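Researcher: Quick test of sequence recovery. Tokens follow.
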């Protein structure tokens, strides 16, 4: 995947569904879930699990994955058409949300305290992978991160601010890909050392 997905830009795109300012945007009826809470909950469930690279919809020229980008109805509603030569890149909004969680994990001082404060935050698997990426390691299946800080001033805190506590987030799953990546991180000495015991969610 790292060969196919380019690294995220510094600033989330103007249509990014992770932006606070874009919540509840009107969309054509056939795409009514595009900026809704349920869709964001599904996206965050995947990101927090560690098994998913969120891609920017403005970079998805693949009409099977993202038919919106070439749909006249979507474009007529004021949304940007995606050129067929677009190169798929990681979503800066999702990166900003995840990196914020990593800062909060560091501030909490231990995994158990972070998980107590933010039970809907990153899983331990995901935190391990983000720690490796932040340190500049080439993580299989993940694009590199930019050295500059991604702008998160207009990005929702999906673990708290968006009220996901009343929605059933998909629990972290031990996908084989995640297991292999975590085993790789362990061999590299990248597993979080503080509060390593306790919950794995």
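Model:
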């Amino acid at each position: 995947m790292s060969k196919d997905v380019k690294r995220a830009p510094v600033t989330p795109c103007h249509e990014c569904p992770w932006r606070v300012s874009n919540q509840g945007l009107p969309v054509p009826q056939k795409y009514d879930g595009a900026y809704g809470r349920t869709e964001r909950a599904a996206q965050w469930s995947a990101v927090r699990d560690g098994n998913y690279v969120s891609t920017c919809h403005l970079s998805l020229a693949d009409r099977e994955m993202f038919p919106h980008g070439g749909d006249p109805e979507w474009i007529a509603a004021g949304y940007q058409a995606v050129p067929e030569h677009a190169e798929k890149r990681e979503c800066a909004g999702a990166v900003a949300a995840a990196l914020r969680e990593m800062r909060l994990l560091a501030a909490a001082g231990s995994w158990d305290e972070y998980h107590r404060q933010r039970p809907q935050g990153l899983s331990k698997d995901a935190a391990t992978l983000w720690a490796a990426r932040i340190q500049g390691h080439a993580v299989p299946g993940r694009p590199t991160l930019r050295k500059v800080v991604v702008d998160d001033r207009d990005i929702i805190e999906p673990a708290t601010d968006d009220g996901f506590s009343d929605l059933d987030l998909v629990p972290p799953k031990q996908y084989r890909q995640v297991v292999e990546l975590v085993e790789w991180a362990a061999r590299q000495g990248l597993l979080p050392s503080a509060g390593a015991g306790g919950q794995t969610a």
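Helices lie at 37-49, 72-76, 92-108, 111-117, 124-134, 176-187.
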